[in-house]
Design brief:
- By secondary structure, the protein is mainly alpha-helical.
- The chain folds into 2 domains: 48 residues, no CATH class; 116 residues, no CATH class.
- It is built from 6 helices and 2 strands; from the N terminus they run H-H-E-E-H-H-H-H.
- Strands 1-2 form a two-stranded antiparallel sheet.
- Strand 1 and strand 2 form a beta hairpin.
- Helix 3 packs antiparallel against helix 4 and helix 4 runs antiparallel to helix 5.
- The protein is elongated, with a radius of gyration of 25 Å.
- The termini are far apart.
């Protein structure tokens, strides 16, 4: 071919199998960022990975839910009348404390210490939601009370699956401070 180009070419069109097209499709080992830029979005001065359509709850809203649901889990046994010193009472109260403690230590807008990455926090939320939802049958108190545990557990699983994994301020582990 003229000019030393390799590949198949139809008159009047660009080369279908040229090196240039190959480079666009498959990154070389020394150019990973060229392709990573496409999956990044600009959020508040920082670049953050693009989220899927399933993750629509902002991390700030999730933080508010963490503190609210944590407090609710601590007091709901007294409000609904199953504070009798059994697992029916202690499971939601312990998971409420875990939710508040995790919220305080998560790297998002409402976190204080910012040591737990958001994806890890969401995994903990999902696991505690599963534990809360199955606890009436796991610990044998489903004959007395199970609806509060099941409903809040399913909601916690849903929040964990639909919350964005990158905070809007995207400060990272430094909490907005210089590293």
């Amino acid at each position: 071919m003229p000019g030393g180009r390799r590949g198949f070419r139809i008159a009047g069109t660009r080369a279908l199998f040229s090196r240039r097209a190959e480079r666009r499709m498959f990154p070389r080992h020394d150019e990973p960022l060229r392709f990573a830029r496409r999956s990044l979005v600009h959020t508040g001065g920082a670049r953050a990975p693009r989220e899927g359509g399933l993750r629509f709850i902002p991390t700030r809203v999730h933080g508010m839910l963490d503190y609210g649901v944590g407090a609710l889990l601590i007091v709901v046994p007294y409000l609904l009348g199953f504070a009798d010193g059994t697992a029916a009472q202690w499971v939601p109260q312990i998971l409420g404390l875990v939710a508040i403690g995790g919220a305080l230590m998560t790297d998002y807008e409402l976190g204080v210490m910012r040591v737990i990455p958001m994806p890890v926090h969401l995994g903990i939320d999902i696991a505690s939601g599963v534990l809360l939802a199955v606890s009436p049958w796991l610990f044998g108190f489903a004959d007395r009370v199970f609806w509060p545990h099941l409903i809040v557990g399913i909601m916690e699983i849903g929040a964990g699956l639909t919350t964005r994994t990158v905070p809007e301020d995207a400060t990272g582990l430094t909490g907005g401070r210089a590293a």
